[in-house]
Amino acid sequence: MKRLETPWTPSWRSFQLFNAYRLLLALLLVFMPFTSWFDLIELDAEARQLVYLSGSAYTLLVGLGLAVSLRWKERFHAQLTGQVLLDVIGMNLLMFILGGLKSGLGLVLLVSVAGASLVARGRLALFYAALATLSLLCMELLGGLARNIDAARIVQAGFLSMGFFATAISAHLLGRRLATNEELARRRGIELENQMRISRRVMERMQDGVLVVDMEGRILQSNPRAQAILGQAAGEGGVLASIEPDLARGYRAWRAGQGPKRVELARPEGKELAARFVRTQSTDGAALVFLEDLGKLREQALQLKLASLGRLTASIAHEIRNPLSAISHAGDLLAEEESRGAIQERLLRIIRDNTQRLDRVIQDVLVLGRQRAVAQERIPLKSYLEDFVQEVLAQEHLEASLIGLQVPEEAVLCFEPGQLHQVLWNLVGNALRHSSRDPGAVRLEARRMGSGVELHVMDDGPGIARELREQIFEPFFTTASRGTGLGLHIARELCEANGARLSLGSEGPGGHFVLKGRSEPCQQQGMKDEPEGR
Q1: In whole angstroms, what is the distance from residue 513 CA to residue 434 CA?
Q2: CA-to-CA distance for 300 and 67, rounded, in angstroms?
Q3: What is the pTM for the complete model shown?
Q4: 13-25 residue pLDDT tens
Q5: Which of 430, 427, 423, 425 is nearest to 483 (CA)?
């Protein structure tokens, strides 16, 4: 394993704490002459006064050193060495007054050397130990000369001096180890923070909604897309069960191994969601929940399909319509001939019918190639459908009782009026073709559903066979001999372009189509029509 090289930096925080400890110790030394413990030491009044003065001076200088370390963070080792020198002089002076090592202040000096060695750099730790040793031996030597030399005290001072060096070396090595671990932790913290930022950025930029959910269903993290889909309650700290109960049930079943890893959900506002669950390797068992807006996916697929059809229809208009116009014109010229028999009449009728059919197919395909949705309007369905039914009855020369209408007064649909007319014309025309033409054979019903509305178009015909229900909206699929197979497909495309949905109703007798749209808000969808000749 490669050794971590860490540049040495002054630890001002540790130095300040070291000075605070020394100040507290100095205050205790100042008040020591007034304690009962001090009475055990046989000192005269002059010695007591000297201890008090020395302790006060030591306290003042230590306090000054602490203030300097707090206010002036320069020349770290000069300040540290000065404070150690102050400890050496102060402690030895007090020990000399109190009778040497028997006062116990040698241990205080040992702690001071250890603390300084922890924050010192390089060989300064040995210097501090040597300084404390020389001062201690000199103090004991002077004390012995003044009070008769005691060999036992010299030996005791020697052992304590060895302790200075051992403590200094151990503290210095420990300080280096702590500095290395601190630098490693700092680097790991930076790497972790960078990874968190990258992960957060990736989640924010994802087109799908992403939730990080723990085993109990609490949301640990979410991206803006997930909050846009599920609401602001899907932020950190939210509970899945209170936000989306169906999603929570699917999540619990998946965790228990009793459900699929992908579920589809129907939102109250008519949106459809798909949720996919993915396990992670985290120790807390958290899982990822990817949310997909199926309506958005369909809209994107629609855009791609329309772009492709736009290129296709331009080719169709150029390659087919021009020859078709020539055929139609030739047929009109042949129709002007006076000497034609029954066979020619039949052939001309076939030409006219098929050219008209081909032209109708081209018109329908051109509609598919253009994005027809424009700004929507709030359409009061009752008056709109009444006018529409009157138009159908008049144009098809039908009895008024053939089409039944049931619409509440307050029913409103957000739709582009011209496109709604085209959708209804396809649906009602299809219903009329398959109905019995009896009174009430075709029915239009509107029903309010929360913030939306449902428009049902029903007939009493044979209905749609179960095996054909999946294909009924596919382009060019038809059961009629002269149909283009594009009417229902175009109707569905126009509904999706307006934020609505066209689907088959129940499998009851007769045909049944359901248009689900919203009542508000109305907004602009898609782009305006492109010129037909593009």
Answers
A1: 13
A2: 68
A3: 0.42
A4: 777 787 787 788 7
A5: 430
